[in-house]
Design goal:
binds 5-O-phosphono-beta-D-ribofuranosylamine, alpha/beta, 7-stranded mixed sheet, 7 strands
């Protein structure tokens, strides 16, 4: 069981929707399994359920809508909010925005993301559905460092399951979420934090 101290890394979650991965991370922190603080949640979608989830846990939650803003202007606002939260590292959990190379290069900490496929296979949208349509025997999810590409950064951890022939795209997507994503994201963050504490990470894995 991890002990929380003031020196623990300060992480923020970026999300756009329901927030089930955010919930898995918050649960792991609350259970003392992750030696970090979640200092805030930032969503680009007004009324995203992840915001209420965060507030119900006493965590600051802010919306930075992207509509009507150029990417640079939106990211500038996001950066300002994250900085005001004191965030060091960013955990993307269903954040439906491509983060620009400029944002990545200027953010001083690490950025992690979770994606519902065994990268580098099936990057991009609707990955679970496309795995179903491709009839892959093994499907999975990946936690990776964020670089300037789409779901293309260095892999930190992957998990997989055996696809069932009768479950359909929705069934596969649901199992990927609950049986793989919610399991591997907290584990990957734990791995990340362990390596960070040991100085065992490259200094700039998220730089293009
Ligand atoms: C997850 O499948 C995640 O891998 C992908 O977006 C989805 C977000 O789901 N990037 P949730 O909001 O965490 O429930």
């Amino acid at each position: 069981m991890a002990t929380r101290t003031a020196e623990h890394p300060r992480c923020a979650i970026l999300a756009s929707g329901r927030g089930s991965n955010a919930r898995a991370l918050l649960d792991a922190v609350a259970a003392g399994q992750l030696p970090c603080s979640i200092v805030g949640v930032v969503a680009n979608v007004v009324d995203a359920p992840v915001l209420e989830l965060a507030r119900s846990r006493g965590i600051r939650a802010e919306t930075v809508p992207h509509k009507g803003l150029a990417r640079e202007a939106h990211e500038e606002h996001v950066r300002a909010v994250l900085t005001s939260m004191g965030a060091q590292h960013l955990l993307l959990a269903g954040y439906m925005r491509v983060v620009s190379a400029d944002f990545i290069q200027r953010w001083p900490g690490y950025l992690l993301n979770i994606h519902p496929s065994l990268l580098p296979e099936f990057p991009g949208l609707h990955a679970a559905e496309r795995q179903w349509e491709a009839r892959v025997p093994i499907a999975g999810a990946t936690v990776h460092f964020v670089d300037a590409g789409v779901d293309s950064g260095p892999v930190l951890l992957q998990g997989s399951l055996v696809a069932r022939g009768d479950e359909g795209a929705d069934g596969l997507a649901a199992r990927l979420l609950t049986e793989v994503e919610h399991v591997i994201y907290p584990r990957a963050v734990r791995l990340f934090l362990d390596r960070l504490a040991r100085g065992a990470l490259p200094p700039t894995p998220n730089r293009s």
